[in-house]
Amino acid sequence: VQLQASGGGLVQAGGSLRLSCTASRRFFSSDAMAWFRQPPGKEREFVSSLSWGDSRTKTADSVKGRFIISRDRVQNSVYLRMNSLKPEDTAVYFCAARSGSPYVYHKSDYAYWGQGTQVTVSS
To answer: Which region holds residue 61: left if phi is over 0, alpha if psi is between -120 and 50, else beta?
Structure first.
């Protein structure tokens, strides 16, 4: 499956962005989608994941209460709504997909990746 991410950009601290990720094929109820991010000079880290079948989600503590993951079955898309953005949220954001549980949080657990979209938060 191919994933296409979009929606990144430059925003001031406190602002919002919505990232989108569209897949080249229909997802199955057993699939999971996730967002990861890679800050400059750091490792790729888990942000949030979602079970395609029942929309159960898991979100990293660092963004909990500010970021919301959601999906659109018709569009074969997953979204990441990012509110109250902080400079430390600056990173390249990647969407990812796997067959199986959404409750896995390492990049090696996900087989499919989008190309990444840059989010820069200015102070």
So the answer is: alpha
